[in-house]
Amino acid sequence: MTDVIVSSTGTRSTTKDAATLLKQFRITDADLDLVRQFGDKIRPKIDAFVDQFYVWLAEQPFKYEFFMDDAHVQEVRTQQTKYWHDFFDAKIDDDFVETRRHIGRVHAKIELPLDIYMAAMNNCLENCVDVLMADEEPGNERQRTLLAIAKLMHFDEMITADTYSQVTNEVMLEQSKSMIEMSTPVTAIWDDILMLPLVGIIDSKRALDITARVLEEIGRTQSSCFILDISGVAIIDTAVANYLIKITKACRLMGCEPLISGLSPAIAQTIVNLGIDVGTIQTTGNLREALKHAFDHVGMTVTEK
Asked: Over the stretch 48-68, which tens digit does the pLDDT of each residue have?
């Protein structure tokens, strides 16, 4: 069974239950029996293997970025030991899958690089090979056991890494959304008057985001006038000019009068040379003139005190 989950950022992800994942990785009951049988042999050695991993980890330059003190290290070691005991118990159900997803979420939250997690998995696989090679079981039986262990490790790694990736993508989307909102500050500068100062380069993605933000604010505030100041726009070409026209037309459809301010002589000449028809859109050379037009439109007069 596969569930579709929509996150708070609007991203869609699928979560598969244990039975579906086992089938996907072709892990059979016979494979799980082999892992359990091997677990009886390796379980007494798990503590020593975890110790060995942390000897390696202590030599890495990134250790203290994630493990602040000895108490924290000990807590993580305890959790890692439990991880491997659960692994060799090989009771694969939805709860088991959820614990692996939880690990992926925790790793993503603390920004632990996946290569450290993969190194721990590889360390255990090497230890399993060493134990198998010292075993007196027939060669074919050792091969089947090693294959079963490898499949279950890949199963574990996929769930953890996939969850890690989903969480990381959600964080990046949220950060991107915040950056977009910061770069498109639609502000109510007076009753019924909105303004958006544009700065930098405008591409198709940003133009769509700007349009959505502007229309959202017009709908929320029911403003009757909108000033789009483009004095900070770096480049005006055909595409950018067309975006600006579309934004203003969308405003008018919402019942809001658009004004474009900040048209320098160079920008005006560029628009004329490009042959773009600005139609009936009101334009001004600076923000001061745009404000005057906006106040006139809403029936207000500004006088000196």
From this structure: 888 888 887 777 766 555 555
Both structure tokens of 106: 């925790």
Q: 3-class secondary structure for 221-288?
A: HCCCEEEEEEEEECCCCHHHHHHHHHHHHHHHHCCCEEEEECCCHHHHHHHHHHCCCCCCCEECCCHH
Instruction: Give domain limits for the chain.
Output: 2-181, 187-297
Distances, alpha carbon 90 to alpha carbons 22, 29, 84, in Å: 12, 10, 10
Q: How high is the pLDDT of residue 278? A: 67
pTM above 0.85, yes or no: no
Q: 249 is written with which tokens?
A: 């037309």
Only one residue has tokens 């070409």, namely 237
- Of the candidate CATH numbers 3.30.750.24, 3.30.470.20, 3.40.50.300, 3.30.230.10, the domain formed by 187-297 belongs to 3.30.750.24
Comparing CA positions, the residue from 221, 208, 222 lying closest to residue 180 is: 208
Topology of the domain covering 2-181: Globin-like (1.10.490)
d(C-alpha 166, C-alpha 8), whole Å: 12
CA distance 47 to 34: 21
- Kindly calculate the radius of gyration of the chain based on its CA atoms and give it in whole angstroms: 31
Q: Per the structure block, which two tokens stand in for 161? A: 């890494």
